[in-house]
Amino acid sequence: MGRTPRRARRWRWASLFGSTALAVTAGGALACPAGAAGTDVDFATHCIPPAVSGLPPIDGTTTARVSVDTTSPKVGDTVTVTYTVVTAAAGNPTDLALPADIMTPTGKVTLGGAQSGDITVAGPKKNPPVPGKAVFPSFSMTGTFTVTKAGRITLSPGDYTIHTSYILELDTPCTVITPPAPVSQTITATDDDPGNTRAITLGSASGDPGARVTVSGSGFTPGATVTLAGRAGATQTADTATVTADARGAFSGSLVVNDRATTGIVAYEGGAWNPDRGAGPAAYAVHDDTPVPDGSQKLTTTVTAGTLAMSQAGDSVALSAVGFGQGGASTGRLNTVTVKDFRGGPAGWSLTGKVTDFTGPGAKIDAGKLSWTPACATKAGSPSTCKAGSAGTVGSAGATLASTPNGTLTGGQFTVDAGLSLDVPAFTPPGAYSGVLTLTLT
Predict the structure, then answer these.
(1) Residue 110 lies in a domain
(2) Which PROSITE patterns match (predicted)?
(3) Which residue has the higher pLDDT, 119 or 6?
(4) Region at 177 (left for phi over 0; alpha for psi -120 to 50; beta for the rest)
């Protein structure tokens, strides 16, 4: 037999090392994830080796986890995410050792719950030598994302790709067969804005025209100039005064009320009334001392402020059944909730819900498996407009079902409901499972 030409031998070596590119889905850059480590999760993976390797696709199981540098970020914060492939779906299929520092991993982390989307992550070009037929060490990739919504945010490992730079530049992509993969990490984001905490109280609820009313306030900006003003419905009257908040944001001042049409008193920072920087209106009535003409009768009436309350169309929901070994979505609809806001003030409301784990015959389904798609409608003529919460995970941390904003005059009647979906794992033991969904109106 003749001697094999050097160029032909080199191509055979290149093909052989091309086959090892599949193996590096189980190895790569060694790194230690920072911050809070997530839970190791397993998911089915489909890996496609480079065409030059001549190897068929490989379906296997990847074990991975997602870590973060903080589990309690605020809206606007940047979170660093580390995706670690602990065990990949394939190993080095050849007898040849793989050199050090030839592999560069990239991948995605999938967000769920209060925020959705994918985070791009990447690792350094760093790996130890790997003997032939050996199991590859784990590798890590990092990336960042900005928190845009408050609530419970889940993170799941996603697709990943290994790029090898040895004789040839080759890629081996590995994809999640049934996305998304199980949740490995959960963070709870909060809104950095504490909301408007300003409040006022009046020394009296009524008086004659020209009476001086004591107004006390709290929660204002320390040292701020605060305007006290009368309101006639949605309109400010000419009755105004100014006070200065002390170092604690509190004040006590007085306002002379002359306008007989006054229905309330407000206090606010800035040049004009703004419900986000003010408090009130606190109800106030001016005694009508207008003389009654001879042969006439004065007729008066009073509109009294009501309460904020809700009622439900029922207290139980039967979700659809799922098959053992199949799992999937167990669906249903929330019993309709009616919210009546008859307070007649400037404050809006928020309706939130949280759920317990679903317990059954010696097993449970995690609360984080329940998600909803909220909807709400506003009755015609209501001063406020209802806004449905975001679709996503409910969980034990809770989520917003519906809300109305603060305003000059708020109130009305609203109907709220939601589509429900419980993601039941495939081999959950047969039987009935139940959890409690608690709604809170504030």
Answers:
(1) yes
(2) PROKAR_LIPOPROTEIN
(3) 119
(4) alpha
- Domain span at residue 49 reads 6-189
Strand partners, 440: 352
CB 201 within 8 A of CB 255: no
Q: Where are the beta strands (DSSP E) in 233-307?
A: 235-244, 251-257, 264-269, 278-283, 285-286
Q: What is the CATH number of the domain that holds 163?
A: 2.60.40
Q: How open is the CA angle 282-286-291, to the nearest 5 degrees?
A: 170
- Flag whether pLDDT at 333 surpasses 90: yes
Measuring CA to CA, which residue among 403, 309, 399, 388 is closest to residue 348?
403
Looking at per-residue pLDDT, the higher value among 211 and 103 belongs to 211
Q: Are residues 173 and 230 in the same domain?
A: no
Three-state SS at 111: strand
User: Got the DSSP string for 386-401?
Assistant: -EEPPSEE-TTT-EEE
Q: Do 151 and 181 belong together in one domain? A: yes
Sign of CA dihedral 43, 46, 50, 56: positive
Dihedral sign (CA 358, 359, 360, 362): positive
Q: Is the pLDDT of residue 32 over 60?
A: no
Total count of domains within the chain? 3
Distance CA 394, CA 371 (A): 5
pLDDT at 67: 93
> Has residue 21 got a pLDDT over 60?
no
- The reported pLDDT for the residue numbered 11 is 32
pLDDT at 9 > cutoff 70? no
CATH of the domain at 236: 2.60.40.230
pLDDT of 234: 79
User: Looking at the structure, do residues 170 and 49 belong to the same domain, yes or no?
Assistant: yes
Backbone φ and ψ for 224, nearest 5 degrees, come out as: -75, 150
| Whether residue 313 is found in the same domain as residue 275 | no
pLDDT in tens, 243-268: 999 999 999 999 999 998 888 899 99
Q: How far apart are CA 188 and CA 413, in angstroms?
A: 31
**What SS3 class is residue 22?**
helix
Q: Is 292 within a domain?
A: no
pLDDT classification of 376: cutoffs 50, 70, 90 = very high
Of 169, 189, 209, which one is at a domain's C-terminal end? 189
